[in-house]
What does this fold into?
Amino acid sequence: MDTLHKNITIFFEELLTDLQCQQDTKSYIVGIYGKYKTSQFALANESITGLFAEARNKQDFASYQNLGDWLFYSKSMFPNSLKNASQSYYDNIAKLSYYNCYRIIKSWKIYEELADQFTPLSNRVKNILDEKIKINS
It folds into this structure.
């Protein structure tokens, strides 16, 4: 694990210590922030609707996962970047993406919790980040 990823992981682990969810889910959420330390997986210039349609046509786990993760990251860090549709639209795409990850894998409860609790979890994380590191939205 490179130093930057390790430092980001430690930083977010400490920030999200009190996040109420399963420990595995919390660890997964922390990992999302390490994933986007570079723009390799970023979807800022992509059509979320188009990507979801492609993932659905292919039933591609990685595409669903990246969509859900990107929407969680964006909603909790930069919610104003999600401006081409309503918040409920983005939430529903994320929930469906995580649900499809759960359905494809069948045994990872993390994705079930992320699908069922996307809105409250992403809102709680955003509130924690706003409070502790003063992110401007």
